[in-house]
Amino acid sequence: MSSDKTGTPPITSTDLIHHGYEPPGGFRSVVPGIFKASTVIFEDTAALRSRQWKDKSGYTYGLHGTPSTFTLEERLSTLEGGTRTLLVPSGLAAIGVVGLSLLRPGDEVLIPDNAYGPNKDFARGELKQWGVEHHFYDSQDAASLEALINERTRLVWLEAAGSVTLEFPDLVRLLAVARRHPGITVALDNTWGAGLAFNAFAIPTPQGPQAVDISIHALTKYPSGGGDVLMGAITTRDPAMHHQLNMTHMRLGLGVGANDVEGILRGLASMPLRYAAQDAAARRIAQWCESRSEFAQVLHPALPGSPGHAHWAATCGAAAGLVSVVFNGERHSAQQVDAFVDALRLFKIGYSWGGPVSLVVPYEIQGMRRHGPFATQRGTLVRFAIGLEQVDDLIADLTQALQALDTPA
Ligand SMILES: *Cc1c(COP(=O)(O)O)cnc(C)c1O
Q1: Does residue 20 sit within a domain?
Q2: Given this model, what pLDDT does residue 26 score?
Q3: pTM over 0.90, yes/no
Q4: Which domain range does residue 378 map to?
Q5: Which atom of ligand 1 is nearest to the CA of 352?
Q6: Which residue owns the Cα nearest ligand 1 atom 10?
Q7: Domain identity same for 246 and 289
């Protein structure tokens, strides 16, 4: 070994990697420590051979869990009212894992016509390709669900409120219909409710609280709250259901990054406050929209005229931060509505919701639905996702942008 001019042996990479210093124990801070790992180190071969990850009693590999992912999973189970949670890289991945885990060739899945679009695309794409059939039911009509159920039906999706059009379904009746068939698993996309508007595992019904089997949550939305993290969660109460999903999750190798876990843990603490603020702001904006003649219809479950309002009132206290407005196609062309959207300054054009910045997306109604009034309606629908700006500023922005509607097409 060579030495420098003082005769001291040089530091080697081994010294740096296997450094003897250990920081004092007992450190505590407001935020739980974030642990990053692919490799987990075992004390000895006995630990390597005996350690279990499936029940979270130990650590074996980063993909199977770290103190950070276990902490987030437990907090989400509490939020959702379930007992076990799996983390996946996006809300859409949560939908995919449920389908891949539960469905076999010859099975059928029933999805609300107004479900999150990519849920329907997954059924039309991969599930169809693997011999799993799908049907879309009218979320506002329990008889339409009942009529589609047969001995091949394995999975029924619920979503409250519906995507973009925000109809609040009759969860009580839909659950009752599905529960008459013991072989059916009921999964809820609970992203809008976020575990705060209602409890997916204790939905109030005249027969007492009723539970879904699985609740999936796009943590990308309210739990993140920043518009900067993609993640999803799958929460259950039944250990056997959790085990089945967990095996699929493991075999697919779906890990989440520790930095993203940190982002969600940070967001979760303020989520109820943000959700309440965005709920209150969205209700004010929805009421203001109702006062404007430019909008043929305002969609928000807490508005008495909005589809499914009575179901919302029977199930929920809170209502998230989404509002959609419908433009009459005979009065306003799609180009005029686009000009209105382009004229908005505080509302930014973009997908997703739950972050600080208000967002807007226009949708053509034609072709969007097979069931309900929107199946035959024409025109443009604009969805607003309310952020955390001052509500008066958002209303002023909407007011000035509405002038663009008068621009000749
Ligand atoms: C956004 C969203 C998803 C998907 O979440 P991603 O993390 O964007 O994949 C699923 N369901 C609903 C209702 C959503 O709003």
Answers
A1: no
A2: 93
A3: yes
A4: 272-406
A5: 1
A6: 91
A7: no
Say whether both 121 and 211 belong to one domain.
yes
365 inside domain: yes
Q: Which residues pair with 297 in a beta bridge?
A: 326
Tens of pLDDT along 330-370? Answer: 999 999 999 999 999 999 999 999 999 999 999 999 999 99
From the list 365, 303, 371, 314, the residue with the least C-alpha distance to 140 is 371
Q: Are residues 110 and 53 in the same domain?
A: yes
Which of 189, 216, 264, 322 maximizes ligand 1 atoms within 8 Å of its Cβ, making it the mutation to test the pocket? Answer: 189
Residues 251 and 280 in one domain: no
The total of other beta-carbon atoms located within 10 Å of residue 370's CB is 12
Domain boundary among 239, 264, 289: 264
Ligand 1 pocket check for 92: Cβ under 6 Å: yes
* Mean pLDDT of all residues in 26-50: 94
Does residue 172 lie in a domain region?
yes
When pLDDT is cut at 50, 70 and 90, the band that residue 407 belongs to is: low
| 16 located within any domain | no
Q: How far is the CA of 229 from the centre of ligand 1 (A)?
A: 12
Give nearest CA residue, ligand 1 atom 3: 91
* Tally of domains within the chain: 2
Ligand 1 center to 120 CA (angstroms): 12
pLDDT digit string, tens, across residues 205-251: 999 999 999 999 999 999 999 999 999 999 999 999 999 999 999 99
